[in-house]
Amino acid sequence: MSSTQQDRRQAGAEELITDLDAVIVGAGFAGLYALHKLRDEMGLSARIFEAGDGVGGTWYWNRYPGARSDSSSWIYCYSFDEELREEWQWSERYPGQQEMLGYLEHVAEKFDLNRDIQFGTRVTEATFDEETNRWEVRTDAGDVVSARFLVAALGALSAANVPDIPGLETFAGDRYHTAEWPKEGVDFTGERVGVIGTGATGIQVATEIAEQADHLTVFQRTANYALPAGNHPMDAELERWYKENYDEIWESVRHNFSGHDYDPIGKVALEATPEERERAFQERWERGGFGLWLGNYDDILESREANDTVSEWVRQKIWERVDDPVTAEKLTPRDHAFGTKRVPLEMGYYEIFNRDNVELVDVQKAPIEEITPTGVRTKHGEYEFDVLVFATGFDAMTGPYNKIDIRGRDGQLLRDKWAEGPRTYLGLTSAGYPNLFAITGPQSPSVLTNMPVAIEQHVEWISGLIRHMRDNGLAVVEPTSEAEDDWVDHSQEVAHTTLFPQSATWYMGANIPGKPQVFLPYLGGLGGYRQKCDEVAANGYEGFAFADREGSNA
User: Fold this and answer.
1) With b meaning 16 or more CB within 10 Å and e meaning fewer, what string describes 1-40?
2) 126 burial type by CB count under 10 A (0-12 exposed, 13-18 middle, 19+ buried)
């Protein structure tokens, strides 16, 4: 917290309301580009409120050992500025947390964004004033700001989930959540460490801790189909290739299904011979990354029979890498289809279980009953630890919105409206909340894509709508209830043509007790989604209702 913010809090006084064109919440990939777009390209007055003490969003908070991108560096970045693309040099295919944070800090400095970012400040309330057609935004630092537009750049995975385990507060050792990692880092040398969670983050952090800890115990609820990352240093030839082919590469990722640089095979799995499938799977395995997930046969996420071919193939790969057959079986997923849970990338994860200092606990068979002062008690006994690490993920997509009191027309809380699941139009807006825009929010492709590509599409489309309003003297925009209903229904219908909803995942909210079980992202693909958004705009922003500056409908 800055000294100015501390003085305001101690005085118990609020700032005078400041009028802005836009308030942006969050200074990650989405917030930084939104600020640049609205302020520098459109000339609007804008301010970011950011809870952290620096830019970066995901890459500011997730400093745990092993944290790194799982998208290729040459597309896990911005494309909007040619000079930025040319001057930045990546060191690896999948950059680590420090490099990703350094990149975003460089962007903030290059475009002088920090002068309009208020760090160490969390937005707590946002209320739409129907008389003024403006949002009144309040922060935990005492700010009260009036803005015409409210842009939620909250991040889909930013509300950390710490499970409600009895006795959690009694643990006498150190405990950490991977999304709230101390800046100074943690030394695990000589420590007995328990890691709870084996999603993408848990796999990364456990692989690193195994090298340091005296003993590591990994508590696994669900085995995952983790794929080799295939990370490697960036050599001069690869860098020259992607810089010479930027336009072609980005044209492809903007319009394909996932925003990644993987090409689908272009046929269904059961039309291929077993020998053809073996070659296709092995090629993608050896290249590393998401190719086996996002660049596979066309039907593996729609047909159980087709999916079984790749699921069984990956299971066999896991068995080949783990020495102990009992441990190998624990690590082998059998309760869900390959690709219907977020597929983690790994760099030696399975091999850590061949070490003498690493143990795996299956909490399906030995559920955690409580945290004790000295460790973790399961149904089968107690494990003693010096340190506990929670890699238990997030209240995904809707969680960040639920942490803020967002009130629209008639004072309705957004979290109340979304109590049975999110209701949006295009994942960008929600009826009854005028001039509120979500970047990569629920019911947009977001977490099923390479996020920077999706973010750029969102920011550019939102700014286009704001420009349309400015050019036509329009003050207020919100979706119609009919358009919203249609999009919600369409989003769920698309999801249920696939195998995804059959798995208990955070895509479905299944990791949060009591959360409605609806599919949260949009599964129609980034390219198809982009086309739909472009059609809406070309048709005069079909599905939206506008009011002019006098408040009449337009």
Assistant:
1) eeeebeebeeeeeeeeeeebbbbbbbbbbbbbbbbbbbbe
2) buried
> Of 390, 408, 442, which residue sits at a domain end?
390
Alpha-carbon torsion (192, 194, 200, 203), positive or negative: positive
Question: Residue 381: which H helix or E strand, with range?
Answer: strand 381-384
pLDDT tens digit string along 123-132? 999 999 999 9
The C-alpha angle 6, 11, 12, rounded to 5 degrees, equals 100
Separation between Cα atoms, residue 264 and residue 296, nearest integer Å: 5
d(C-alpha 26, C-alpha 533), whole Å: 24
**Which spans in 213-273 are helix H?**
236-244, 246-255
Tell me what pLDDT residue 548 has. 87
- What's the pTM? 0.95
Interhelix angle 526-538/451-471, rounded to 10 degrees, is 0
> Which residues does 487 contact at the CB level (< 8 Å), separation at least 6?
424, 425, 426, 427, 443, 543
Chain Cα centroid distance, residue 423 = 19
Q: Give residue-wise pLDDT tens across range 459-500.
A: 999 999 999 999 999 999 999 999 999 999 999 999 999 999
Q: What pLDDT, on the 0 to 100 scale, is given for residue 430?
A: 98
Asked if residue 459 belongs to a domain, the reply is yes
Query: Could you tell me if 458 and 345 lie in one domain?
Result: no
| DSSP letter (8 states) at residue 4 | H
Q: Which residues contact 289 (CB under 8 A, 6 or more apart)?
A: 70, 72, 93, 227, 229, 230, 260, 262, 345
Percentage of the residues of the chain whose pLDDT score is greater than 90: 95
- The domain that holds 44 is classified in CATH as 3.50.50.60
pLDDT at 9 over 70: no
Q: How many domains does the chain have?
A: 2
**Single-letter amino acid, residue 137:** V
End residue of a domain, out of 339, 362, 390: 390
180 and 328 in a single domain? The answer is yes
**C-alpha R_g of the chain:** 24
Domain that holds residue 132: 3-55+113-159+396-548
The whole-angstrom separation of Cα 271 and Cα 352 is 38
Rounded mean pLDDT, 137-154: 97
